[in-house]
Q: What sequence folds into this?
């Protein structure tokens, strides 16, 4: 692993959920409060800030210019931003994202530039627009220091992408203790693939979008008994900080209290003791027991589906709501994670149920998902 790619610490500041002056306006970032958060983060010795072309409708990047870039020496921090080429109408627009991001950020280079949300049918747009070669040219020009990509997909897809693009410097993946051995997401396999290709990993969703900071009582009590003083977020972050091959662990912070708590947790970070690991394993088992659909993500159902319904993903989201008791969070995930084949596209042919080794009543479960999330 190229040691020059490593930031000063593994604590990353995710700038996707910044504090707002007006909750109805995602661009109304409270700059003065954000400055205090940046100061607390930097004073604790952390340097990694993560944003994207689309966060807060672009205001996240301009907020970083005001709160960070204008107030600290450029060499004292590292910046990451991203391009959603698949959402752009053409290659010129996709490539122009870098120019816009640099202008918004008020800098002439970014440390980490990501091709954002590669995977599935979206990868074709990155290929069509020549984005892989583009980021390498921009590295040579000095406007990008390190190029990578983010993805919400499986380990086989990651392996294929890194085999096709060994020139990429790093990857950004969803990893957390709930997904680690999950049959759908299998975050442990993602980490194994990245390690096989020698790529460091930026971890996103270490707390599963905040869901691991708001556990159901049955799971929360297990962790509280093992470490009464530790917060639920600390359990989630410690799991990720101490994994091998980690470049940075992103934490989306929305207020000053979260910033203080997170930097304090990182300052005190140590690997789990055997007793703590056992408690975490027990908490995960409790969460798994709350799942309502016995899907193992074997994907047999998908192969025979004439409507291309994303059946395993729908089952996963039904289980996620059962485990987290957060309907709105899961509904928001559903809106984009099943876009290629929502539950309502089911024609009730029964091919999936005939193939399912777990004998799940898939048609009824799809009806339930459509009613809940569409």
A:
């Amino acid at each position: 692993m190229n040691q020059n790619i490593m930031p000063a610490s593994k604590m990353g500041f995710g700038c996707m959920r910044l504090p707002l002056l007006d909750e109805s306006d995602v661009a109304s970032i409270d700059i003065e409060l954000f400055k205090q958060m940046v100061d607390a983060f930097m004073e604790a010795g952390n340097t990694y800030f993560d944003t994207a072309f689309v966060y807060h409708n672009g205001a996240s990047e301009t907020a970083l210019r005001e709160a960070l870039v204008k107030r600290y020496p450029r060499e004292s921090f590292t910046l990451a931003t991203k391009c959603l080429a698949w959402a752009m109408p053409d290659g010129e627009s996709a490539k122009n994202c870098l120019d816009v991001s640099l202008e918004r950020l008020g800098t002439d280079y970014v440390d980490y530039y990501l091709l954002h949300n590669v995977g599935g049918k979206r990868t074709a747009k990155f290929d069509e627009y020549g984005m892989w070669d583009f980021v390498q040219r921009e590295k040579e020009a000095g406007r990008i220091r390190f190029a990578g990509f983010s993805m919400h997909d499986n380990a086989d897809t990651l392996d294929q992408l890194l085999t096709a693009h060994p020139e990429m410097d790093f990857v950004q993946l969803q990893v957390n203790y709930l997904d680690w051995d999950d049959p759908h997401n299998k975050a442990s396999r993602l980490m194994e693939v990245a390690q096989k290709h020698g790529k460091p990993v930026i971890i996103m969703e270490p707390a599963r979008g905040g869901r691991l900071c708001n556990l159901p009582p049955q799971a929360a009590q297990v962790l509280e008994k093992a470490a009464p003083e530790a917060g639920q977020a600390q359990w989630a972050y410690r799991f990720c900080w101490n994994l091998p091959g980690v470049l940075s662990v992103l934490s989306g912070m929305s207020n000053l209290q979260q910033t203080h708590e997170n930097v304090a947790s990182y300052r005190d970070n140590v690997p789990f003791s055997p007793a703590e690991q056992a408690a975490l394993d027990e908490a995960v088992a409790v969460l798994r027991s709350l799942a309502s659909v016995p899907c193992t993500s074997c994907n047999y159902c998908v192969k025979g589906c004439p409507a291309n319904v994303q059946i395993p993903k729908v089952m996963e989201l039904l289980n996620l709501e059962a485990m987290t008791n957060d309907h709105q969070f899961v509904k928001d995930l559903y809106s984009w994670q099943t876009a290629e084949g929502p539950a309502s596209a089911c024609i009730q042919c029964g091919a999936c149920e005939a193939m399912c080794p777990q004998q799940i009543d898939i048609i009824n479960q799809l009806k339930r998902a459509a009613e809940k999330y569409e």
User: Anything to note?
Assistant: The chain has a mean pLDDT of 94.
